[in-house]
Amino acid sequence: MMTAAVPMAPVPDLVEVSVQDSAQLDQALKDGIAGVMAAATLHHTGVMVIRTGPGRYVVRVHPEVPYGLIRQQYQ
User: Which residues contact 50 (CB under 8 A, 6 or more apart)?
Assistant: First the structure.
């Protein structure tokens, strides 16, 4: 089971991704990145993927990531 919670906003700049099966992780992260891509383009910035725990990620537009790039961070 996988979930991606997109906040109710005209252009979401943050998506929470949660998976229980590692086989679903790649697709869930791709979906999360696609969910914030419009905001990243609008703000001309990149995307940060942050692992917050086992199977839990936050995908967000991040001003320290150059436009067009996606970076990963583990907490």
Answer: 57, 58, 59, 60, 72, 73, 74, 75
Contact call for residues 35 and 18 (beta carbons, < 8 A): no
pLDDT tens string 24-35: 999 999 999 999
Place of tokens 């001309």: 44
- Phi, psi of 62, deg, nearest 5: -135, 125
CA distances to 12, 22, 23, 35 from 7, rounded to whole Å, are: 6, 24, 25, 10
Q: What is the pTM of this model?
A: 0.83
Buried b or exposed e, range 36-67, using 16+ CB within 10 angstroms: bbebbeeeebbbbbeeeeebebbbbbbeebee
Beta bridge mates, 15: 59
